[in-house]
Amino acid sequence: MFKITLRRLLKRKPAVIGLIIVLLLIVMIIFAPSLAPYDPYYINLREVLHPPSLRHPFGTDELGRDILSRIVYGSRLTSLVGVSGIALGMLVGCSLGLVSGYYGGLLDDSIMRFIDVLYAFPGMITAIIIIAIIGTGIWNVALAIGIFSISIFARITRAGVLEVKAADYVEAARALGASDVWIIRRHILVNILMSIVIMATVRLAQAVLVATSLSFLGLGVAPGTPEWGAMLSSGRAFLQQAPHITIFPGLFIFLNVLGVNLVGDGIRDVIDPRYRSEE
Known about the structure:
By secondary structure, this protein is mainly α. It has one domain (15-25, 67-271): MetI-like fold, CATH 1.10.3720.
């Protein structure tokens, strides 16, 4: 099944482009110390605001730090925050969706009214409110992303549970005396897992955008930390004098979001029968 899915995915040019971008990003994350030509924190006041050159391919910032090195190391922080936030939102949201959809009744109503309240607020507004309450920091940003991601995972999981739990094989397992935990784990979750994975891939791009946006607003990482949103923010004051400070971090944010979106759309088209065309 994995080979068939991969073969179908490789037939879609946008998905292949996305895979290449994501794979290059993963390589950059893993081998950051080897790929970065300089220490991302090293300050050299003799090379302040230097344009791109052979010595510094992406130029230097207002403190003489090498932008390429900071972008390479920044990929780790940006990806860590996005993946951690989505993992937290998926864990909590899917758990609530499974319980709500399977048991129904008053428990379902109570959980879904809470989810509706979360869903009513735009993700960015929710994240800003949470950061304002608990404070700034990498893990607080990941927590904020996780909290506003709970609602979408809970809703898609509940919808899947409601569709699957009425199936004959679930009724048969219940008639044979299978426990609720067994039915949820072996008969329901496995049949809706792919929809959850597709949603997680698509939401990861939004999580990266929110993480970099919070850092751009000064609500994310500490000042001076090599993170793409923070680098974008620090270069605002030098747009006319040294536009490369903002161009390159912005370009990598764009490529990251583009690659993840293309992969997510490709996986959805290949696996979801509602989108997959006959081959």
